[in-house]
Amino acid sequence: MAALPPAALACYADRMGDRHSAADARQLDPVARRVLERVEVDGIELVRFIYADHGGVIRGKAAGRSRLSERLGSGIGHTVAMMAMSMLDRLQPVEGMGPVGEVRIVPDPATFVPLPYASGAAAMLSDLREIDGSPWAACPRTFLKDAVALLGTEGLTPVAAFEPEFTLGRRLPDPTGGPDRLVPLDDSLCYAAAGFDLAHDYTMALVRALEAQGLPIEHYYPELGAGQHELSIRPTTALKAADNHVIYRETVRGVAFRMAMWASLAPKPIAGQAGNGAHLHVSLWDTDLEHNLFADGKGGLSLLGRRFIAGVLAHLPGLVALTCPSVNSYRRLQPRTWASAYACYGPDNREAAVRICSPMSGNVEASTNLEIKPSDSSANPYLSLGAVLHAGLDGIRRKLDPGKPVTVDPDTLTEKARARLGCERLPASLAEALDALEADPLLMDALGPLRSAAFLAVKRSEVADFARQDVAYETFQHLRAF
Ligand code: GLU
Ligand code: MG
Fold first, then answer.
1. What are the Cα distances from residue 337, in Å, to 59, 167, 227, 275?
2. What pLDDT does 22 receive?
3. What class does CATH assign to 145-481?
4. Residue 17 has what pLDDT?
5. 50, 92, 55: which is closest to 378 by C-alpha?
6. 184/172 Cα distance (integer angstroms)
7. d(CA 102, CA 447)
8. Cβ(350) – ligand 1 distance below 6 Å
């Protein structure tokens, strides 16, 4: 990485009218210095330091240009309480996350992106750190980094991609005086060519904005529900995949807001319409990323891959509390909706929780991967992917066997047949999933005491708050947050 050219540095210091800025800039590592250069060249005024919280909401604070060199090193001060905040902005009583205490939102300069949909602004994905700079026990991005490091000790490198669906429309008042609703932009049919045209201007703005931020588009198509679209991003290493998903969520909504539209990745944004999944694709590679260890060399899944499936299935009841963590998530996880409702696996089975994806010809090894269907965009992607990795690794370490694959829609089987296959119904509500999480020592241990206490408190408060409200309120709040 080239150092900041002296001319750009001088220009930066001069424009800031501040000798300290130049001194701060000189102490930064080359990647951070490059951020200052980009800010200067691109005319960026505000840089958002963003993170995802326990409610799955993406939040942050922005640094002004004049103090950026300082903030790159120190981060921005933040109350510890924000990791005890629910998606309804209701603070929960969590020990260690009260009104006293401070962390720092410390950006990762390698994630710097000017925001194509927000002129003059840029963003960086951030860690939450203690004041002394050490990782904070409740930092979600650190949770994923630690999971990746743990797999690294076994010579395994996870590669992943979130495959999100979202609904595009307009925010309109409810004629009966209820909360605002998302009214879909189009009513095109599933994969119907008309859908490409009806949403074309938005789609092109979105595609260009994602590509400009370094997210390579894999596929795009109009999906089943009215206003529903799916646009997938190519797989990459785990931390980057989660960072990408945060950028993706921000961009889907940011582009829509700029075009006076409303877009939502909420799991069930419109009752009676298809839900929005964010299926999670995973494979494990060797340390040098040369070989996909899920590929058996004969076009099938390796023993390692089977064990990973077994680990995911073994932990699935608690795992879905992290991968499908909102009250609204459980309106999506219904049988016969291709969202998955049973803990089973199968080759190209779109009703199974884990689908073994058939590899693509000409690219068999690299394209061998597992698709985890009970996953949606109300999740904190660092927690959900990190937890999936812990579960899969447990299957590998304990040499678990996933049993027989299910090759039909499990909902068409009798209860007896499902029981024979060990194919259990997934938790039917967030409350059930949270109980399962609390009863899962491996996941609880991986989360650690502070993170698990905060996550459970936040999520249980959401269960209680939405239980007192109707569907229209629940839908609106999820549209607002996601
Ligand atoms: N919309 C479905 C879901 O909620 C997925 C449909 C599909 O892409 O197979 O997961
Ligand atoms: Mg889809």
1. 31, 16, 17, 8
2. 60
3. alpha beta
4. 47
5. 55
6. 10
7. 21
8. yes
For 153-178, what is each residue's pLDDT tens digit?
A: 999 999 999 999 999 999 999 999 99
State which ligand 1 atom lies nearest to the alpha carbon of 337: 2
In our burial notation (b when 16+ CB lie closer than 10 A, e otherwise), range 139-172 reads bbbbbbbbbbeebeeeebbbbbbbbbbbbbbebe
Q: What whole-number distance in Å separates Cα of residue 455 and Cα of residue 83? A: 8
CATH superfamily of 7-135: Glutamine synthetase, N-terminal domain (3.10.20.70)
| Ligand 1 pocket mutation pick from 165, 232, 280 by most atoms within 8 angstroms of CB | 165
CATH 3.10.20.70 residue ranges in the chain? 7-135
Q: Which helix (H) or strand (E) holds 64?
A: strand 58-64
CB 319 within 8 A of CB 354: no
Q: Quote the CA–CA distance of 184 and 178 in Å, as a whole number.
A: 18
User: Given the CA of residue 350, which atom of ligand 1 is nearest to it?
Assistant: 9
- Which residue matches tokens 């937890």? 387
For a mutational test of ligand 1's pocket, the pick from 162, 224, 232, 349, i.e. the residue with the most ligand atoms closer than 8 A to its C-beta, is: 224
Tell me where in the chain the CATH 3.30.590.10 domain(s) lie.
145-481
Pairwise CA distance, residues 433 & 443, whole Å: 12
Mutate to test the pocket of ligand 1, among 219, 220, 223 (most ligand atoms within 8 A of CB): 223
Bridge partner residues of 355 (DSSP)? 346, 371
Pocket lining: 274 vs ligand 1, CB cutoff 6 Å: yes
Please choose, from the candidates 482, 459, 480, the residue with its C-alpha nearest in 3D space to the C-alpha of residue 54.
459
| H helical segments located in 130-286 | 140-152, 193-198, 200-212, 238-258
Tell me, in angstroms, the distance from the centre of ligand 2 to residue 160's CA.
17
Residue 40 β-bridge partners: none
pLDDT band, very low/low/confident/very high, at 23 (cuts 50, 70, 90): low
| Whether the CB of 376 sits within 6 Å of ligand 1 | no
Give the dihedral sign, CA 409/412/415/417: negative
